[in-house]
Design a protein that fits this description.
By secondary structure, this protein is α+β, with helices and mostly antiparallel strands. It folds into two domains: about 5-75, Orthogonal Bundle (Arc Repressor Mutant, subunit A), CATH 1.10.10.10; about 95-190, Arc Repressor Mutant, subunit A (Orthogonal Bundle), CATH 1.10.10. It starts with a helix and ends in a 10-residue tail after the last strand. The protein contains nine helices and six strands. The longest helix has 18 residues, at about 75-90. Residues about 90-95 have low confidence and may be disordered. The strands form two sheets. A three-stranded antiparallel β-sheet has the order 1-3-2. A three-stranded antiparallel β-sheet has the order 4-6-5. α6 crosses α7 (about 125-135). It has helices spanning about 5-15, 15-25, 30-40, 45-55, 75-90, 100-110, 125-135, 145-155, 160-170; strands spanning about 30, 60-65, 65-70, 145, 175, 180-185.
């Protein structure tokens, strides 16, 4: 998760009314009037706070005839709440993940052909991270990329662009939302090249 998304999540949920709404929705879906009654607030106030929670993706709505019910996406809430802990893990590179510069160059020589293509995706995590960090060097910081652009970029290295793209996201090199990709800050990377 991008650093600004982590900060925004905590800003949004850092409101007492929103925390109370989250705790109510944790018990099950409710419509706006029911939330307002339980919290002793007016419906427009609830609409405002629920809109903020929907913006960060932890609340979604479904219509049942003329009534709109709000649901809590608990998985998204847990993921977003734990993102700050994951950030701490990633910035403190674990000892087994540290790779000396000469080792990085050796790994690149072993896994890349002279024409720059990747011979195979390493199965060992340490080597895979070096390869992923090496390949991502051509991606610009702060630029949003469409999935098609990322695929074309990866194809210059390897035909299995889906696996490499997924590995970049899973290992916090990139962030993906709505089929758009953005490079994460280097502080979030498990390894740099």
């Amino acid at each position: 998760m991008q650093l600004d998304k982590v900060v925004n999540f905590h800003k949004v949920v850092g409101d007492p009314t929103r925390i109370r709404i989250i705790s109510l929705l944790k018990q099950g879906p409710l419509h706006g009037q029911a939330i307002a009654n339980k919290l002793g607030l007016k419906p427009p106030t609830i609409t405002h706070h629920v809109a903020k929670l929907k913006q960060i993706g932890i609340v979604y709505q479904r219509r049942d005839k003329n009534t709109i019910y709000f649901y809590l996406d608990q998985k998204k809430l847990e993921y977003s709440a734990n993102a700050i802990l994951q950030l701490g893990e990633v910035t403190n590179v674990r000892p087994e993940m540290s790779v000396e510069d000469k080792d990085k160059l050796s790994i690149v020589k072993n896994f890349f052909a002279p024409d720059g293509t990747l011979k195979q995706i390493p199965s060992q995590r340490k080597k895979k991270l070096v390869v992923l960090a090496y390949m991502i060097r051509g991606i610009e910081t702060g630029k949003l990329y469409e999935e098609k652009e990322i695929n074309e970029y990866i194809k210059q290295f390897h035909e299995d662009y889906a696996t490499i793209r997924r590995e970049w996201v899973m290992n916090h090199f990139m962030y993906r939302e709505n089929n758009q990709y953005e490079l994460n800050p280097k502080e979030m990377w498990p390894i740099e090249f």
